[in-house]
Amino acid sequence: MTDPVGKLPSELDQLPDRDPEETAEWAASLDAVTKAAGPHRAAYLMRRSLQHAEGAGLALPKLLETDYVNTIPTAAEPAFDGDLEMESKITAWNRWNAAAMVTRGARYGVGGHIATFASAAWLYETGFNHFFRGKEGDGSGDQLYIQGHASPGIYARAFLDGRLSEQQLDHFRQESGGEGLPSYPHPRRLPWLWEFPTVSMGLGPLSAIYQARFNRYLANRSIKDTANSHVWAFLGDGEMDEPESTAALALAAREQLDNLTFVINCNLQRLDGPVRANFRVVQELEAQFRGAGWNVVKTLWGNAWDELFQLDTQGALLRRLREVPDAQFQTYATRDVAYIREHFFGTEPALVELAKLLTDAKIAECFYTSRGGHEARKVYAAYKAAVEHKGAPTVILAQTVKGYTLGKGFESKNANHQMKKLSIDEFKGMRELLGLPIPDSAFQDGLVPYGHPGADSPEVRYLQERRAALGGPAPARRLHASAPLPQPEERAFKALYKGSGKQEMATTMAFVRLVKDLMRDKETGKRWVPIVPDEARTFGMESLFPSAGIYSPLGQTYDPVDRDQLMYYKEAKDGQILNEGITEAGAMADFIAAATSYATHGETMIPFYIFYSMFGWQRTGDQMWQLADQLGKGFIVGATAGRTTLTGEGLQHADGHSHLIAATNPASLNYDPAFAYEVAVIVKDGLRRMYGPDAEDVFYYLTVYNEPKPQPAMPEGVEEGIVKGLYRFKEGTPATADAPRLQLLASGTAIHWALEAQELLAADWGVTADVWSATSWGELRRDALEADEALLRGEVQVPYVTQALSGAPGPVLAVSDWMRQVPDQISQWVEQDWSSLGTDGFGLSDTRDAARRHFGVDAQSIVVASLAQLAKRGEVPASAVKEARERYGL
């Protein structure tokens, strides 16, 4: 039997057909319908059959794309639970004040965005009035990821509610005076209002998914009942181009996160133009989300379109909607009715006849204003369907017009994202459209006034009553009145204080051992959240698998291949470890959710996220800033750190710069410990600073090394130096009273090269070197900058690094496994002659010894550099430098 020409093989060709004759009859019936009623009727019947099969519970693949219509027909919409007229008035006031705030700010050139909230107003207002739970009710309330460019509308609502003053609105984007409002949702700038920073597009949707997942994690581990918390993420259709926006869709579906809803405002416009000029972004997103396993609710058309669909008995309107690209539909909203009749309805006879039944007013209403996202009943129906859906997350695709109600100068214009103000005449036109009682006399000195119906007005009372019923104001961020965490027992730290004797131990392993012991603490052990992106065995964390368990909402539904081994791969519903697979972005989103749980849920957690240091700040640095903005706390651990400790994997795995990037973040306390006891001291101090009685809004970045070395016992009295960033680890012993002397400062694994160089300098050249452990170049710099600021206030404050090195003889040579810029951060506060060695340049694949010789940071290179500095001072002969290079084969 020969396949028809062009027929591709199918998986069905591999399955036996028990009744080929019946199969042929079905195919013939379909052919008959196609011939008699046309292919569109045949396609409709097929879709109806699939819909019926799904409802009957048959296991069939779902359609990835449905017609360009609303998922919920008007006839199926639930009753609207509210006073629509009152909510329309509230929304009108908020639209006005959002536009007024940005326009007034334009006097100072501070910018702002008007068009986004104008299109999305009902998407927010319906949620605030009916769905978004506040934090004063039962549980933690809902978590709202608000689209950053819509912030003026949120401020406007807070103003109507009495939470913001007119003076604060007038200082939008003008924060330096202390009364201003940040441009976007920034918790660090306005911590009582904003919960999640979202304007770095793509991070909001990613974080929302992992927040919903973390809510379930807390519940499954019996730490917090989060059953009444729903996560809402408000996104733009253009934002969905960001890779992070869709990176975790499958995770959300796989874990059945029905506590999560995405609301995508499909106004078909990016910042500069159409989202999908020649295509249809709504259909694309529907297929993408359906394919990932999400429940999709399309809210595209307002009630005015119902008449058109009822008249479309031949399916011509649906066909036309499926083929019109987004950019053309955007154009329809800006052209006259004659243009729409010609270019939309004039494409086939059936549409021409349909258009004859429509008045110009009806066409104008449909194409200019009637979108699903602009009608409260449509939005309410979509939200209700979302929160009631079980077994999968929901995405609502709501179609709107960007710049809606702002007038023809704004609506659907490509430039409306950059347009910062309306003219007085445009505001007066908007006033008439919205029906607001603002007299002409209120426009003083060319300024548009703010509008408010009064603190005791029906609108404000209604708004506040709705919020009270839903659990208080929203959005809101609360620092719950929870007690500080007790400090863990000392014995976990003492195990590292005493060193490892002759046994070799990498600092990576030292950190893991410490955390493993801390997780056994009766008071705080359950608060630790270990996070790793599928490299747990690399970092020696497999011992945590059977004891702590890997979190999975399904538990372990299979028999693990290593079940008979001591450290087998154990998954559990109450598992403590978040093993994210190969996704640093997902792991960081986990970390952020855990690091801010103290505010979101009133449950303080202690996350530590361990990763290849090269793939932290470099790959997910934007999320590190998100973490800082969100006031997160915890330990970020860059393992296999430095440019020469992981040399076998070449250029892209060789990190010599993460400390430089981390130094740019004011909330990040960055440490590069050399020894296990330093790790213990830093972690202990970090627990005090982040979770103690005077908790600070900081997080820690530690770099640890996978290079096993004997770990010394902690010398007495070094704790302060470890925390502050510098202490003398080993003082040199001068062979003679007048022996040349210098100071070697080293961090991390470089301490071992410096110690070897100390011996070579003494034995081969009669030079005495003191070796200092620089645990934190960044903290030394932070302290020095604070001293500089104090000096400008007329206060004398000597930087710690200056004090520590005061009187130390000879020049200072700093060495690390990082670029020279890392230690050079402190050079200006060192009184001695300064020089540094580092691993500048690209990495390479070779042995550690060869890589260190290549970069000029090994012990012999340190000796040559030391002699060079002493030769400049005339303390050793200049010939010693050349002699040393020849002796060591450099």
Structure report:
- With 890 residues, this protein is α/β, with parallel strands linked by helices.
- It contains 34 helices and 20 strands.
- The strands form 5 sheets. Strands 10-7-11-12-14-13 form a 6-stranded parallel beta sheet, with helices on both faces. Strands 1-2-3-5-4 form a 5-stranded parallel beta sheet, with helices on both faces. Strands 16-18-17-19-20 form a 5-stranded mixed beta sheet.
- The protein starts with 19 loop residues before the first helix and ends with a helix.
- The model has no long low-confidence stretch (mean pLDDT 93).
Keywords:
10% strand, five-stranded parallel β-sheet, pyruvate dehydrogenase (acetyl-transferring) activity, alpha/beta, 890 residues
Oligomer: single chain
The count of strands amounts to 20
Distance between the termini: 76 Å
Percent helix, as a range, is 40-55%
Task: Describe the sheet with the most strands.
Answer: 6 strands, parallel
Low-confidence regions: none
* Discrete helix count: 34
Principal-axis shape? globular
Order of strands in the sheet with the most strands? Answer: 10-7-11-12-14-13
Give Rg in angstroms: 33 Å
- Indicate the proportion of strand residues: 5-15%
Provide the structure class: alpha/beta
Residue-averaged pLDDT, rounded? 93
